[in-house]
Structures are given as structure tokens and as C-alpha cells.
Design brief:
mainly beta; 9% helix; globular; 14-stranded antiparallel β-barrel; two-stranded antiparallel ribbon; disordered N terminus; 4 helices
Length: 348
Amino acid sequence: MKTLAALLIATLAAWTNLAAGDFNSGAKGTTGAAFLTMGMGARAVGMSGAYSAVAADASAVSWNPAGLVRAPELSVMFMHSSYLADISFDYLSFTHSNGSSAFGGAVAYMNGGSVEHTDASGNSLGNYQPRDYAGTLSYAADLEALGAEKGAYQAGISGKYISSKIIEKASAFAFDAGISAKTGVGGKVLRLALVAQNLGGGMKFDKESDPLPTTFKAGGALSIAKNWLIAADLVAPRGNAPYLCAGTEHTAYKDDDMRVLLRFGANSLTMGDISGINGISGGLGVVVKNMAVDYAVVPFGDLGIAHRISLTMKFGGARSDAESKYNRYGQRTAKRNADDDRLAYFFR
């Protein structure tokens, strides 16, 4: 608990310093590669991005690489998003974990549709097609080797290559880092997380360079009751003011082979920015044995509605399976806390 308290104090101090730099509302529109801030995976988006402490599947590559350690032995995710106008977004990720360490990777692609190109006088010069790509490789490990209790702390790091094409083309390298910690509150398991994303140089188009959308997050996730998970993230993005996102997931139905989950979230960043309903999200998930299909919807007021659908598959045992009495080598293990199990996405 002393370590967690120190991390919290350091986070609050960092937030105070960030507000004085480019991490405020006065810096809107100053970053490049904005597609990196789009949510990966419909489950996370349905919870409005309150996911840094929840992530324990293949999408942890993009949310918090430390969560890869708690992922199933092998997990694969594919997501397609029908965004506003004719913009689409696709994402593919995977992870492999042995319970002590893990590695993973992801590829993201955004198709910006077709945009008319005009000169300074408004004369048409034809159309151009904005495209964005990112490739990521991640590694994570449990910190038991450093003297911590097994499962109490994990750390992860990701390296990524980013490429964007508007009319000119630009590229950059960046990295993410994250930690995850487990503690207890009122007999329940509480997971905490700290994440830094998109640390690196800028995207240089022609003569100008745009900084990457560097983001810092502090999050928590708690199973407050049977089949009910809540989570929240405090987020400081470069190019905007710090904001809070919160989400919940309720298991509406469960039997030995199937679960149906309902999700809702709210995000203070976009609330009130545009007319109409915005700043909230919702979603639905269906898990059948080792496969999950998730859907999320995000209204953007008068601009329209964005939809995401993702398919996740796992192979091998879930790392936080409370009912498992044996590890992957057939050795008997202690039964895990059932509240921690509710943070896991899959079950046997």
C-alpha cells in the first residue's frame, strides 16, 4: 500500500505540471497522428475508454501493455469501426502469455475516405485519400523477480512505428509504458494502473512537425458486486485538457458456456463540445466459451454515430480463472480470488 500511495502522489504532482504545458484546452489541434487516440476494441469503447486497469486481453497492447501478463495463454482480437462520414478504422492484435511474462503486437489502419483538394483560391485540384498506419510490439512481465508478490505488480512496454499520409507522408517512432497493481478494498480486489502513451518525436509533413498525441493515464477497476464491474481513468492528453472517463460492465446472463454483458460509459472530454447527445457510450458483449463478440456505439451529437464491432478469441487457460485448480503444467495451485476473476474476460 505504501508503494501505491507513492505512485498516487507522484501522479497528482505530474498532473499539476502537465496543466502548465501543452496538456490543456488551449493546445487543441496541435498534435498529429490523432488516430492513435481512437479506442481499440469494442469492449473498452463501450466503457468510454475507462480501461487501463481492466485490459487483460490482446487489446492491452494498446491500452496498457502491463495487462498482457494477465491475458489468456494466446489471445487474438480483430476490430472494425464505422466512424463518422466515410471514415473507417481497423485493428488487429495478439498476445501470448505464460503467466510470468508476455509479448504481443498490433496493427492499426485508418482509412480517411476521399477528400477534395483545393488551392488557396478554392480551385479544385482533385481528391486525396488520407491514410494512417501503426504497428506495435509489446513485452510485459510480472515483477515477482524483483521481490513483489506474484500477481501483485506487472510492468510492460511497447514500441511502435507510425505512418500518416495526407497529401505528404510522415512517419515516427514512439513507445508506451505501463504498470498494473493489485490491492484490496473492503474485501474486494482493486486493480490500479499508470500508463504513458505515444512518447516520441513528431510527425513532420513538408516543413512543419506536429507532436505526437502523448497521453498519461491513471486508472482503477473494482468488482463492486457479483457480475458488476466499475472502472475509471483520469487522462491527461497533449493537445487538450485533462478529463475523466468512467465505465461499467454488468453480466446480465451467465451459464456454464455463455455470458451476456451490458456496458455503459461517460467521458467528460466531449461532453458539451457539440450539440446533441455526446460524451457517453454503450455496448453489448456475448462470450461463448473461448470466443467473444462485442459491439459499441458512440454518439457524436449532430455529427452522427460511430459504431465498433470486435471479435476476440482465446486459446489456452485464462490467467485469472478463479475455478482453475491446476496450472498449465498440471501442478495443483491455490484457488484465486473470485472478485479478481470478474476482471477477466474469459472463463472456462
